[in-house]
Amino acid sequence: MQGWPEGVGRRVLASVDSTMAEGARLAPGLSGPEWVLALEQTAGHGRRGRAWSSPKGNFFASLVLHPGEAPDQVALRSFVAALALRDALVAATGRADAFKLKWPNDVLLNGGKVAGILLESVGTGQGVTHLIIGVGVNLVAAPGADQVEPGAVPPVSLLAETGICISPEGFLDLLAAAYDHHERHFTTYGFAPIRTAWLRDAARLGETITARTTAETVTGRFETIDEAGNLILLTARGQRVIPAADIFF
Q1: 231 φ, ψ to 5°?
Q2: Is the N-terminal amide bond of 243 cis, ω within 30° of 0?
């Protein structure tokens, strides 16, 4: 494991229900960060409990952390993970211009969704006991159009778009090293440099997009993300700050 970050565990499972569920089960007994990779996942899920397609050969992994910051700062690791995921994909392909970051937690390849990130945490009082960062990447296969929400960004696979085939274990090595790099920057310098780097590769920045929350649909120009990671849209009624939504182009 050349380049594997020091002090970070690595666990590869033949099959599991969900790497996030397994990470949560393991978390109380772990003394440091650990990656959990499954070669087969039988009950993966995405945001809002949506099923995550998990064909063999794709990448399903979760990182277990025991962060010390306040919950609002812990949540900013979705952007840390997004930067690391993009870096790993660029390292695997050498195609920096092909990958963009879609708020709040997806990576696009040639305009299609190739990867997603999901954060789940357990806390006591005002703190976070552990954080699970789940990552799914369509390395060899993408879900069909009938498996995604109407109007959503179409899914694509790394293999179909680039002709490059990388094993889940090989991709984990790239991702773990990239995440460790950005995690160190985050804990040392805070969110500001992470935000700047994320915006540099943000999809549709300056363009009109639609944010669909549980209560409303808002369309406006994607201006930026703020210091809390919220989406900032300029609408006909002025600036809107959106903390959580599904984004449509």
Answers
A1: -80, 135
A2: no
Tell me how crowded residue 209 is: count the other CB atoms within 10 A of its CB. Answer: 20
Length of the chain equals: 249
**145 exposure class (CB count in 10 Å sphere: 0-12, 13-18, 19+):** exposed
Dihedrals phi, psi of 119, to nearest 5 degrees: -110, 135
Rounded to two decimals, the pTM is 0.93
Per-residue pLDDT band at 47 (split at 50, 70, 90)? low
Residue-range definition of the domain harbouring residue 239 = 208-248
How many domains does the structure of the chain reveal? Answer: 2
pLDDT of 8 above 90: yes
Query: What gap in Å lies between CA 51 and CA 54, rounded to an integer?
Result: 9
CATH number at residue 237: 2.30.30
